[in-house]
């Protein structure tokens, strides 16, 4: 994982996703995003990519455990 962008919370508590991120992940108006969280982090994932992301995450954990 790496940090590629930052997002800003507006005065209306809305998150602005940078244009380059919207383009890279083909985000469209009306897309559903899943919000995952833990005690110290928050993550947004396009809902139709959730299954793929979980597989990727499991692989990363396996690599870190070696």
| Approximate shape | globular
Fraction of residues in β-strands: 15-25%
Oligomer: single chain
The helix-strand sequence is EEHEEH
Helix content: 25-40%
Main β-sheet, spatial strand arrangement? 1-2
Can you name the CATH architecture?
Ribbon
**Distance between the terminal alpha carbons, to the nearest Å?**
17 Å
- Strands, total number: 4
In round numbers, the mean pLDDT is 85
What is the number of domains?
1
For the biggest sheet, the summary is: 2 strands, antiparallel
Model description:
By secondary structure, this protein is an alpha+beta fold. It has a single domain (8-65), classed as Pemi-like Protein 1, Chain: D. Helices cover 33% and strands 21% of the residues. It is built from two helices and four strands; from the N terminus they run E-E-H-E-E-H. It has helices at residues 19-24, 50-65, and strands at 8-9, 15-16, 33-37, 42-46. The strands form two sheets. It has a two-stranded antiparallel sheet. A two-stranded antiparallel sheet has the order 3-4. Strand 1 (8-9) and strand 2 form a beta hairpin. The longest helix has 16 residues, at 50-65. The chain starts with 7 loop residues before the first strand and ends with a helix. The relative contact order is 0.12.
In short:
By secondary structure, this protein is of the alpha+beta class. 33% of the residues lie in helices and 21% in strands. Strands 1-2 form a two-stranded antiparallel ribbon.
